[in-house]
Amino acid sequence: VQISVIIPVFNGAGTLPLCLLALADSQHPASECIVIDDGSTDDSAALAQRLGATVLSTGGRCGPAQARNLGARHAAGDLLLFVDADVVLHPDAIGRIAERFET
Fold first, then answer.
1. Adjacent-strand bridge partners of 81
2. Over the chain, what is the mean pLDDT?
């Protein structure tokens, strides 16, 4: 099962790198990681890009729901995993989700 991780962010430069590094260290990597910048005035989008995420923009402050919907429209995975920019997933989280859906 292919899992797309979708992360809305607004001025999350302080926490987003930890979130993305945890995803990179996952025991079961996601098929893609999409960060949606929701009008940030900090370095969030550039940080996400440097850490290998696909970065989309809402074009201004639209709120997390619209950011998630934008990410969902661009995602290619079988499953969409929505994660906030201040969340650090456990290394086996994606694997456990994939395993559950595969069974």
1. 5
2. 97
